[in-house]
Structures are given as structure tokens and as C-alpha cells.
Amino acid sequence: MRCTLPPGRKLAAFSVLLLLAGCGPKAPPAPPPPAVTVSAPLQLAITDWDEFTGRITAVDSVEVRARVDGYIESAGFVEGAMVKAGDMLFVIDQRPYVAELTRARAEAAAAAARLTLARNDEERAAALVDRKLVSAQELDNRRQRRLEAEAEQAAARARERAAELDVEYCTVRAPIAGRIGRRLVTAGNLVSGGERESTLLTTIVSRDPVHVYFTGDEQVYLRYLRAAHDGTRPSPRDVRVPARLQLADETGWPHAGYIDFVDNQLDKPTGTILARALFANPDDTLVPGLFARLQVRGAGPYPALLVPDSAIGIDQARRIVYVLGEGNAAVARGVTPGRLVGALRVITAGLTATDRVVINGQARIRAGMAVTPTEGSIEAPPELAGIDKLD
Asked: 343 lies in which domain range?
């Protein structure tokens, strides 16, 4: 059964529905513009540092070897300790060599006596030859015997000196100052001398300063070469180009040195050139054999604009930052980023010193959106803390 309302009641019901609709929930207000932090780019005079990986080596490294045969009598050093040049390290049994020295000295004395007799004979013959009591041939014979006696004495003295050296070599001394390694031969063992089959006794490496060897590729070498020709960067062959070093557990670059060698050609298989830096090592921190990160001064100093690396975004194939436009609108600006300096990135193109760059909150905005800016600042990273800002 259908219920039909009179026309007057239909109008009243429609009015009630309109009233109820007007009392319903209202649409939410538009959200306020997102808050962001903005700052002008940081202006600094910076220097480019090219980074390499190198290995620390000793400036002087010596393999201590026996120079004579014999039995080790004693080893007079503490393994791993520092030694000075001339310190006694090993003693080889000297008795056979002392006996040989005694024999050589006796031979040298006999040769000296024979030379004295030969000289006297020659002098007497020279005095008698004018009186025709000695023939000229006899004088020549005595002169010849004198010359032979002089040669025999020289040979005897050489054997005596060789025997003295053998006695000296029985005491093995440190040829350089540095840190000594472990004993490779202990007392009581027989060692061999000579040049080819000599026994290795221990090793010594110098400690201060140290070298760091590293390699650069062709592009680095050519860039440095062009800069030297242009006068924008001196060649390390002509001046001491600064370098700095960092060990695996260190922050910053606490060790300062300079480049002291660049090889004369590139290695054909690898296409790299060998270079070397010299670093002071007064506290013995730079141990030979350690790997280290090395930085060599490149271009600069030159004025640069820097922004936080986190402020740089990607828009398809280009890098962008948001800058504050008219009416506090966010404007996407294409930039060309350069090298990283701490947490900051050098901007080589796309920004001016007066731009106000969004450095915080950029993830909440998009191009053309109005924002609520708050002024902030960009602080220099610790490695550049001592450099004056540019006005």
C-alpha cells in the first residue's frame, strides 16, 4: 500500500531534509604551506684534493746477512726493539779468522823483510856498476827482484787487510737506525757468508720518516701535466706538492707530507704511473706495510658555493635543488654538482650567492608549491673549519 503525502507536507519534508544537510560535517580547510629551512649557499675558498690509496713503506730497509762463515756465538739485541746504527747484533766465532789474521800478518812481515833485502841489493849494485865491479845486467836483475818484492809485499798486505775484515765481519752491527725484526738464526747455528749464499739473520726498517707509494691513472697524470704547463698547478718534480694521509681508523687527515717522487714512465699493463709521498712519523704511528688513504692537492684555492649534499635531488636525468621564488614558491633549479667536501657539495653551475636554497624539508615540497620558509645557515665541515668565509 502506497502512502501519498499532500503537496504541502512534501514541501515541509523537503525543507527538513535541506536543514539536516546543512547541519552535516563541513569540508576540511586547506593545509598550510609546508615549513622549510632555507639558506644562501656557503661561500668558501677551497682546494681540491685528489684521493688515492697507498701503502706505507720504510725509507730504508735492510736485510742483515752474514758476511763470513761460522757459528753464531750470541745475538745481542731485543727482537722488535729500536736499534741505532753501529749497534752490535750478532757475534760469529772469531777464532778461525783471528788465526788467519795472525798468519797474514806474518806473511806481510816476511814480505817486508824480503823487500828490504832486495832494496839493499839494488843499492849496492848501483854503487858498483859505475866502477865496473857489477855488470849492468846484474843491476837489472836486482832491480827486478826489488820490484817483485814490492809486489809480494802489496799482496801480503792485501791478504792481511782481508783477514782483518773477516775478523770485523764476525761482529755483525746494525747498518742503519730503525726497528729490528725477529732473530732468524739463534746462537749455536752455522751460518754462511759470501755474496750469494749468505744467511739472512734479521731485518731492520727505518721509522721516521716513511714513504707512501701510490699510483694514478692516465687521466690524473694528464690533468696534472696540463696544469703544470698552464701554470695553475706546479709539478711535483719541481716543488713540494702537499699531501695528507689518513689511516683506516682515523678521521680527517691528520698526517701532512709532500710528494717527493714521480716515476719517469707509465706502467704499460695497468696504464698507471707510480708516485711517492714522504711523511714524518715521530710517534711511530705509520707502520710500514699499512694501507692508507692519501690526498694530493689539486686545483685551488678557488671561490666556491657549497650546499648540503642532502639538499640535492634528482629530476629525471638532472640534479636539482629547490630555491625560494616569488611569493615563497619553491622553484626547482638545475645544478651541476662538483666534489664532496664533508657533508657539503660544491656547486659548479646553476646557483648564485644570493639564492636561498631549501636545505631542510625538501622532501615535503614539489616545484611551484608555496612554502613557509625559516632562515637557517650552512656550517663549514670540520676539514674546512679553519678557512675564512668569503663575503
From this structure: 35-47+301-384
